Amino acid sequence: MRATAERLENNKVALEIEVEAEKVDAALERAYRKVAQQVTIPGFRKGKAPRKVIEARFGKQALYDEALEELVPAAYREALDQEQLDPIEQPTISSVEIEEGKPLRLKIEVAVTPDVKLGEYKGIQVEKLVERVEEKDIDHILEHLQEDHAELVPAERSKVEKGDVAVIDFEGFIDGQPFPGGAAKGYTLQVGSGQMIDGFEEQLIGAELGVPVEVRVTFPEDARQESLRGKEALFKVTVTALYVKRVPKLDDEFARDVSNVETLAQLREEIRKDMAAAADRRADSAMRERLVQLVRDQSEVELPEALVEEEVTGLVNEFARSLARRGISPQEYLAGTNKTVDDLKVEFRPEAEARVKTELVLKAIAKREGITVSREELEAKIDQLVAGERDPKAARKAFEDPDRRSVLRTSMILDKTVQFLVDHAQVEVKEIPSQGHGHVHRHDEDEHGEEDHGLGSDEDRERPGEQPAAGGVSTEEA
């Protein structure tokens, strides 16, 4: 196959591609056999009708069309590889010439990634700020472990105290009328935990087991359900069961129960090691992100609108998925915040532009430095990805799709490029005070160990400064 590329305006390229006559004839033969298997010709068994009969009945164009479905995508991908082009949208085929015994000639136009004017990207100075693990952090972890292993035992009294676990039945009324989401039976609540809206739990302190009480609250102005915002509500509540938490004693026996160590001192040391490792991973991730930002900000590129729009759409979809996981529909969110999808797109656009620019800059560095991913590396990565799937064979088959392999290869090249930047940076490691991370991060990377650097999916993203409002009495529904 031969291909030539001509640069046009607006980052477009005109490709002229010629595929050898031998490949065309072979594709036509395969097309004939495929069509023959799909049709029934009187007087011939299925698949046995001669090619001339097929052509006479359906026309040569039917075979040409079938062959082009095989030849064009393959030739296009090969031309992109040969000319080292990175398309950013679907190509437009302007001319096709195909005839048996002659080369296939194609003319294709496609928009490609724009040229990037790179700034400095080697020797960049960047800090790696590692949080110091302090005794209070270890104490906090141990407190959580005690809470996790606490037992609930019936209270030996009948009045509710702060910290008790109460099972309650309740029904809420606004202006004397029940409202949706305002009632529940057998609801388990730790009094003082902040599960319910402000004022609800405090009014349960002193309530008598089995004796109905009235709780009056005012819904916040940002309540998830618009109809509840700012409304005063009366709840009739009955405590049907009352428990206290029996927290295990913090000693060597507790350490043996919750871990593989023998003493509390050893458990504290294990926690310290885990927290130190987690702090280092967080610091490394933040350092890499900062390094990429510095390199990106020193580079210049005209952002293609098609890529930005695609990224904006992806971010909006990610946000919708994060809402869905918390039981909030996009329609509810938009109604509750008086926003439209277009408003969300405007909010997400700066992040989308940053992501697009980051990827373009990293690709440009990879190209300049000859950073690639070999077939062996790609296959090894696929092996890693499919290993944890329920059906590894089906998962591997999915990676036979050239587009999916291309996406994975690009992701791997970007990761390699970030590592290249780190290897050539001046990294200064500094210890900083604890930021109060209250749990051990055992897995700070995604399930496949891939890095984000602001390019990948962040399904837990929320809008800055916003919290979803509660639709009912429980703040857990937010």
Helical content (DSSP H or I, runs of 4+): 40-55%
Radius of gyration: 32 Å
**Structural class designation:** alpha+beta
Number of domains as seen in the coordinates:
3
CATH architecture of the largest domain: Orthogonal Bundle
Number of helices: 12
Q: How would a crystallographer describe the biggest sheet?
A: 5 strands, antiparallel
Could you tell me the strand content as a percent range?
Answer: 15-25%
CATH homologous superfamily classification of the largest domain: Trigger factor, C-terminal domain
Q: Which parts are unreliable, with pLDDT below 50 for 5 consecutive residues or more?
A: 440-451, 453-471
Note the overall shape: elongated
Number of strands: 11
Distance between the termini: 59 Å
**CATH top level class name of the largest domain:** Mainly Alpha
**Pattern of helices and strands:** EEHHHEEEHEEEEEHHHHHHHHE
Q: Remind me, CATH topology of the largest domain?
A: Trigger factor, domain 2
Mean pLDDT across residues: 88
